[in-house]
User: What shape does this take?
Amino acid sequence: MDFDLQWLLIGLPVAFVLGWLASRLDLRQLKRDRRDAPRAYFEGLNLLLNEQQDKAIDAFIEAVQHDPDTTELHFALGNLFRRRGEFERAVRVHQHLLSRGDLKLPERDRAQHALAQDFAKAGLFDRAEAAWRALLDTPYDTEARLALLSLYERSRDWPHAVEVAAELQRRGSGSFATRIAHYHCERALEADTAGQPDVADAALADARNAAPEAPRPLLIAGQRALQAGHPQDAMAAWTALRERSAALFALVADAHAQAAQACGQEAAARAAITSAYEREPRLELLQALDRLDAAPSSERLLTHLHQNPSLGAAAAVLALDSTRWHDDTRMQLHAAVQRAARPLQRYRCAACGFEAHHYFWQCPGCQGWDTYPPRLLEQQ
Assistant: This one.
């Protein structure tokens, strides 16, 4: 009994000392880890500010290894990977965050948002769509719906685009009426291509209901009517288009003249095109008038060149017999060509794209030396 008690009296102090030493060692290790993690973090931040992304990533990886529970380091690392185009690594970082059961809801939404950006930047649109949809009815709801709208536009998924745009408008994110009208117009064009005229008619009706003042449904309606052999209906649609936008009417002015010839309404078409030209002097409108007159009007064209010098007008005048020119036509041609060539008479930096009328040995934009090719843009 005395022997056992003696060993007990000796063992207790020894165990206490060993425990104390172990705790001190663990404490030192913990302090060292905590000291190393901020050092690596600040080192990475400094490297990032100095645009040394490779070294910054290495520093952030070291910091994450020291403290894997630090979400901010994960976000910084994932964003760096995405900016560098290393999308797979960025996805892994953000998916690791989402797999953590202790992640709070705001941080989880933030990680989901970052993951959606990773997929979108990588061109994985199906995964990006699923990631953005997971953010609906969260603080990122509006941004997610706008991103989905962009995805649907890019993939030409017009029914889903209509649905998302209508919901954004309902939630007070602005007016999407004109965009919705464009989506329905695209649906109409696809239906016509597929040989579904009834579907195209319904889509155009939806476009007009979505945005009654939108000009594109009228333009398409006129084109479809002319193709279907109803020139009077085409003229009626394009007359309404001209009242809303003379500039857009110029796109179908020649077809308007053809429709007028088909139904014997040349006089009405001539008056409409002349009225549009007075509001929007365009060369296309003059060409439509030439179709109605069955012969080009050199006087009209020369007057247009004088009042609206452009390269297209100059090319049209050059096609005329020079005996029809006015005394100052040659000078007007020179002025029109010079005006059109002016944007091309510049030097462009091969490094940053900075353009200048004078040749520089050192680019004023990026400060690079010998970055300007010694040739004007029109000579490249």
